[in-house]
Write a structure and sequence with these properties.
The chain has about 325 residues and is of the alpha/beta class. It contains five helices and 13 strands. The strands form four sheets. A four-stranded mixed β-sheet has the order 3-4-5-6, with helices on one face. Strands 10-11-12-13 form a four-stranded mixed β-sheet, with helices on one face. Strands 7-9-8 form a three-stranded mixed β-sheet.
């Protein structure tokens, strides 16, 4: 009898303990025991970079990087994203390829007077004749997207890179955007050339991005006239480059000041003739092109003397 009583007390105690544990692990949702949970999506930090696209052109896109205010760390992340099969290159968007040879390492990196000096190991030279020039273009344009960097100097094992690895074409000590990108040569006289970089629209799997092309010509017109005329003409042969600027759009007047470029068009700049809306793709191709050729902060779009839009170049993504 005593054993049965003890067993009963043990069973009651066990049940009470079990109820207590369940209450603790699964509290009610009312009163002071309730817990409010909020799920939030954190937008990854993205950085503008220039990679090889599906057409083997050096194109403007974005890659995921760690958020960092230090320019050397930013530059290092960008360079690592350009290296084939690097950990950072795994975050590059679909349809784009890194271009610096695999297993390239940064031996040292420093910034002085807005010039970034990068010292690579010998693997940097393991490129091929088709990609050696594109590799330099990709580095220049990716790194000079940073406000603190105006140009770069490339070293390999502490020796400055004096020429392209395969063709042996001589390189300037300091490389900046004057080097050009995706170059197209349209000149007869090599002594009187000028170059203008123009951005076109490209598309891959329903994603739009922009591709710069540097035209080297004997054209003596102002760069802004060259930009508008090129964007109005037919797309470049054998490429997927596009321009949404109508061929009937006319640049009636323009003014270049210290901080802005003021453009006046006829009504054909509008998406619809009777609506006062300019396509984003038109504003971006013109804005990016002007940013690469003029040191200004904004483009002002006017139509027949009426101000339509201010396009801030420093906010271009």
């Amino acid at each position: 009898m005593i054993k049965k009583s003890a067993a009963k007390r043990i069973m009651i105690a066990s049940i009470a303990l079990l109820i207590l544990v369940i209450t603790y692990l699964f509290p009610t949702t009312s009163g002071s025991n309730s817990i409010n949970q909020t799920l939030s999506y954190i937008e990854p930090n993205k950085t503008t970079i220039y990679l090889l696209d599906n057409s083997n052109m050096v194109a403007r896109t974005k890659t995921i990087t760690k958020e960092n205010k230090d320019v050397i760390n930013k530059a290092t992340q960008i360079i690592n994203a350009l290296i084939i099969n690097s950990q950072a290159s795994k975050y590059n968007p679909s349809g784009f390829k890194a271009i610096i040879p695999e297993n390239t390492k940064i031996l040292s990196i420093s910034l002085s007077e807005n010039i970034l000096k990068i010292n690579f190991n010998e693997n940097f030279l393991n490129t091929d004749s088709y990609n050696e020039n594109k590799m330099i273009e990709s580095l220049i344009y990716s790194l000079t997207e940073l406000d603190e960097i105006d140009g770069i100097m490339i070293f390999v094992n502490n020796n400055i890179l004096e020429c392209l690895p395969i063709s042996k074409k001589k390189l300037p000590d300091v490389l900046d955007r004057k080097y050009g990108i995706n170059k197209i040569y349209e000149f007869d006289d090599v002594k009187n050339t000028s170059q203008t970089t123009i951005y076109y629209l490209s598309e891959y799997e329903n994603t739009k991005y922009y591709t710069p092309v540097t035209f080297i010509t004997n054209n003596n017109e102002d760069k802004i006239e060259v930009i508008i005329e090129k964007l109005k003409t037919s797309p470049i042969n054998q490429t997927n480059l596009m321009s949404y600027l109508a061929s009937s759009a006319e640049l009636l007047d323009y003014e270049i000041t210290e901080s802005s470029v003021n453009l006046t068009f006829n009504n054909y700049i509008f998406d619809e003739f009777h609506d006062k809306d300019i396509l984003e793709e038109v504003k971006y191709t013109i804005g990016l092109s002007i940013k690469d050729n003029y040191d200004v902060d904004e483009v002002v779009f006017n139509v027949n003397g009426e101000k339509i839009d201010n396009f801030e170049l420093n906010s271009l993504e």
